Automatic annotation (TrEMBL):
It comes from Couchioplanes caeruleus subsp. caeruleus. Residues 4-152 form the Ketopantoate reductase N-terminal domain. It is an enzyme of class 1 (oxidoreductase). Pathway: Cofactor biosynthesis; (R)-pantothenate biosynthesis; (R)-pantoate from 3-methyl-2-oxobutanoate: step 2/2. GO terms for biological process: pantothenate biosynthetic process. This is 2-dehydropantoate 2-reductase. It comes from the Bacteria. The keyword Oxidoreductase applies. One of its GO terms (cellular component) is cytoplasm. Its EC number is 1.1.1.169.
Length: 308
């Protein structure tokens, strides 16, 4: 199949590298020193069981020469989506799927405004992958899975072909009963853990062990459960207990990307994570007091004016 990956960073590089390694026609759209390294020495994916290099790998910063592809993996951060969307038109044919992988529940809607719902396949990535340096991606954990579906979850030939390509490339994927419920379930895990982790600078191990932080985590998850209900999304009745059990299985030293980005002073996805909870809560009249506090504290810290 023909794939284009817009944003060949941690996640896009991992998925694109696996697909290219399995023989698919993959073009990575990248920039800067990462693009230079991809062109010079290919893409190296350091996995849990060793490293593999795909070389040569097709990489460019100019989408105009690629032509229409079967699927675009839109793998940039949420705040980079507008710029990435500008690269889409030359890649899109009448049946091209545009797969979103962003954490949060708003990215598919933003992309659909640009390309239409028929083109968008919301995806949920279950992997921990990061750029280890120019041209190199590290798969640090997680099952290495990408679940995706059509907007209305109906089975289609293109969804099936993409799943076959993923499985053939060693990426686990399961047809979801409802991709929106899966997106919200992941939202309910990452946002409370990320927000509270960033506020306290605590790892999963600490957050789950202290009675106080554990209670706040559960209260934050319950807020998102209420928000999902307000959006007509059916989550399992025991979603908070299930998600706490999942938190209990995470490596004790683990943190989320939101926490790591804020701690390192990099631009974060705060607006698409905690910000979205506050925004959607206000829009639907759903109380989100825990997220309101977390959002205010982290916004203040990100604005750099905490000591002004
Ligand atoms: N990494 C993971 O394991 C997971 C990530 N996600 C989600 O996936 C998304 C991507 O995350 P992640 O891969 O970690 O982020 P990264 O920052 O590692 O990767 C994004 C890449 O896209 C590049 N990029 C951005 N805009 C453009 C553009 N217009 N043209 C070319 N390249 C561009 C960035 O380059 P530059 O640095 O120059 O801006 C960067 O290399 C996030 O929304 C995240 O929530 C979801 C689950 C797991
Ligand atoms: C699942 C998890 C926590 C893995 O990195 C994630 O998606 C994130 O931190 O952004």
């Amino acid at each position: 199949m023909r794939f284009a990956v817009i944003g060949a960073g941690g996640l896009g590089g991992y998925l694109g590298g696996r697909l290219a390694g399995a023989g698919h026609d993959v073009t990575l759209i990248a920039r800067g020193s990462h693009l230079a390294a991809l062109r010079a020495a290919g893409l190296t994916v350091i996995g849990v069981d060793g490293a593999a290099t795909v070389t040569p790998v097709r990489a460019t910063d100019d989408p105009t020469g690629i032509g229409a592809v079967d699927a675009v993996l839109l793998a940039v951060k949420t705040w980079q989506l507008d710029e990435a969307l500008a690269a889409l038109p030359p890649l899109a044919g009448p049946d091209t799927a545009v797969i979103t992988v962003q954490n949060g529940v708003e990215a598919p809607h933003r992309v659909a405004q640009a390309v239409g719902r028929h083109a968008v396949m919301p995806g949920v990535a279950k992997v921990i992958a990061m750029l280890a340096g120019p041209g190199t991606v590290r798969h640090a954990g997680g099952p290495g899975a990408l679940d995706l579906a059509e907007w209305d979850n109906r089975p289609t030939g293109r969804a099936e072909r993409i799943r076959e390509a993923l499985v053939g490339a060693g990426i686990t994927t399961t047809p979801p009963a409802d991709i929106w419920a899966d997106l919200w379930a992941k939202f309910l895990f990452v946002v409370p853990s990320g927000g509270l982790g960033a506020v306290t600078d605590a790892t999963f191990g600490v957050l789950r062990q202290r009675p106080g932080t554990r209670r706040i985590l559960q209260a934050a998850m319950a807020e998102i459960e209420g928000l999902a209900r307000a959006h007509g999304v059916a989550l399992p009745a025991d979603i908070v207990a299930r998600t706490m059990a999942f938190v209990d299985q995470q490596p004790a030293e683990g943190t989320t990307s939101l926490h790591r980005d804020i701690k390192a002073g990099r631009r974060s996805e705060l607006d698409a994570w905690t910000g979205a909870v506050v925004r959607l809560g206000a829009r639907t009249g759903t109380p989100t007091p825990v997220h309101d506090v977390i959002h205010e504290v982290l916004s203040l810290r990100e604005s750099g004016s905490a000591s002004a």
